[in-house]
Amino acid sequence: RFAVSVGYWKDPYIQYFVRQAKERKAPEINRGELGWERGHLTCYYARVHGVSHLIKAFLERTECNCQIVNLGAGMDTLFWRLKDENLLPRKYFEVDFPMIVARKIHNIKSKPPLSKPIMESHSGDSLLIDSHSLDSSRYSIVGADLRFPSDLEEKLKKHSLDMHLPTLLVAECVLVYMTPQQSANLLKWAASAFPVAMVINYEQVNMRDRFGQIMIENLQRRQCNLAGVELCASLHSQRERLLVSGWENARAIDMMKVYSSLPQADVKRIEALEFLDEKELFEQLMQHYCICWASKDSSNL
Ligand SMILES: C[S@@+](CC[C@H](N)C(=O)[O-])C[C@H]1O[C@@H](n2cnc3c(N)ncnc32)[C@H](O)[C@@H]1O
């Protein structure tokens, strides 16, 4: 939310899901921490840009005649942003733990800027809503554990998931919280369940070097355990996990590469917002996150 409030990119919906961050420390108080924070914001910007680019390419290819399944969606606002851009797929699904879903549904129910777009895009029978799931014609949210793909499939099918429609699965900072076996099961399920599909995964990479180890230690200190970190060893390991799970044409690029492909006007604007004086730290950070994607296409979409 902070990144949006200082103008990194526009997201009019995030304010309804995430409370305003506390006041920032003055630069002279802790420069190291601030450099770290700046790096993260810019990395976040590159991520939003890169992931949106891939999502829009899929929507364009399928002429929106597709569905999106956002795995571990948390408080993501993509559905609302796509609606504003007139780019909604036939149906947009979100999955997360029931407790997170209940929180999101509460926000949707109590904030008209969130509920209105769902109502506007809804047609037909009355909308199904309870504390752990919501199902409308174009937006659906399901409480499920991604470690159990058959249970997940059953729940999504109850919300009219169409196994024959081109399907985009998005996982941003999610697979790393599952063991390699659990995320492999999920990726294998997705590759075999949909004849035409694409998967996008955003998460850590190059985690075996010194910088990666410091990132792991920092997260562990905040009780955050990256159970799947061994698959984040390199761009190669990230690509391989997709290929061995039945996906084709897998690619993986680090965020430095994404950043260097941003339009120059964007880079100038970002660098003017928060001049990146700790360039080395910033570059290291960007080299430790990546976007990976792969497809499966029996009909040469
Ligand atoms: C770091 S957050 C990322 C949220 C969102 N994808 C984003 O990028 O803003 C990870 C999310 O994955 C969800 N998650 C992790 N493991 C999960 C599992 N086994 N089943 C369902 N959700 C899970 C968490 O509850 C959390 O909302």
UniProtKB/TrEMBL annotation:
Its EC number is 2.1.1.233. It catalyses: [phosphatase 2A protein]-C-terminal L-leucine + S-adenosyl-L-methionine = [phosphatase 2A protein]-C-terminal L-leucine methyl ester + S-adenosyl-L-homocysteine. SUPFAM superfamilies: S-adenosyl-L-methionine-dependent methyltransferases. GO terms for cellular component: cytosol. The keyword Nucleus does not apply. It comes from the Eukaryota. One of its GO terms (biological process) is regulation of signal transduction. Keywords: Methyltransferase, S-adenosyl-L-methionine, Transferase. One of its GO terms (molecular function) is protein C-terminal leucine carboxyl O-methyltransferase activity. S-adenosyl-L-methionine binds at residues 47, 72, 145-146, 172. Belongs to the methyltransferase superfamily. LCMT family. Methylates the carboxyl group of the C-terminal leucine residue of protein phosphatase 2A catalytic subunits to form alpha-leucine ester residues. This is Leucine carboxyl methyltransferase 1.
